[in-house]
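Supplementary Methods, section 5.1.

A reviewer requested that the exact input to the structure prediction be made available. We therefore reproduce it here, unchanged from the version used in the analyses.
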Amino acid sequence: MKFASLLLASAVMLISCDKTGGDDTGLDAGFQISSNKNVIQSNGADAVTFTAELDGKDVTAETTFYLKDSMTPLDGNKLTADKVGVYHVIGMYGTFYTEEPIAVTAIDMEVPAPAEDPAASNTSFVHRAFLNQYTGTGCGYCPGMVSALRAAFEDEETKNMAVHAAVHSYNAGDPAYIGAPKASGYPYMEIDMAVSFSYDLDPDAKAGVLKKALSERVSVPAKVGISANPISKDDVLVVTVEVKAAEDGEYNLGVWFLQDNVYGQQTDYLGIADNSYNYHENCVRSADSRFGSSFAGHPLGQIKKGETAQRTFVLNIDREAWKLKDLNDLHFAAFVTAKNGRNYNVVNVVDCKISEPTPYQYK
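The structure derived from this sequence is encoded token-by-token as follows.
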């Protein structure tokens, strides 16, 4: 059975807004529920455990947890499943309740463990920046931005500093179209949800600016490392991502699933696009990172230096809609954000294959 990627973190509030880094509006609530996992095996034994807090006080014992669709109470604070599907759980404590449920996905295969850590005591990680390109096949000025990116990436050292994701959210007729996140204007580029660039007429100058910005972002030590372990069955991809902290902090985790070799005729007002511009790489097919009003990732909570936290993500691979001929054209970017003022910025990212584990990348 196939599933949509509907894996929301604790007390998620879905708001009609398409920011990436966003701000912290709507993220805090007096009564909140959380879970120790978001994906379980549908064997009737694997269980997810829920907890509840009111203004920071543990009220789990006094909270009743329900399946939202049927308002059936759970047996205590645990949920098991003997059928494949997505289960939505809410909590009620006195007059307090959670408006948005926690989604738990039950799958008919074993949930993958985290990738093996080759150096458990090491916290010195390779640092890469997350470069998000907002373009579309119907955007006539977008080849200028793509040209700047290509020029910047001609330098192998610069290319290795970044993980690139192409967000085709401009026009619905785009074969790689995704409805969100969106940009305020197109073309647009963002690095780590912190530094942004809009269109100008000088791709070579823009390439120089991009190279400088990427170098500055990765010049500081990485606050976290990221590993991933994917498995797949019947076009359902399940990925467990683990985060290890190099610095104490509260972190969020997201995964954007990407596809290469997507063909789409590119509009070009600049007269610079040859046939290669009709083949699009790193196209975002699913941005599983929405929390509150942003796409800054699902909260992992506080992680102390040397400790880890994890989350599992599920993707329904739609070969027909995506015109996907080769599964090797799929990969994913796993990224971590941390709060910076009212915004959330990416503090590290890795590009992962769907066919093998990605261990922590140490310096």
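The CA atoms of residues 231 and 238 lie 5 Å apart. These observations are discussed further in the main text.
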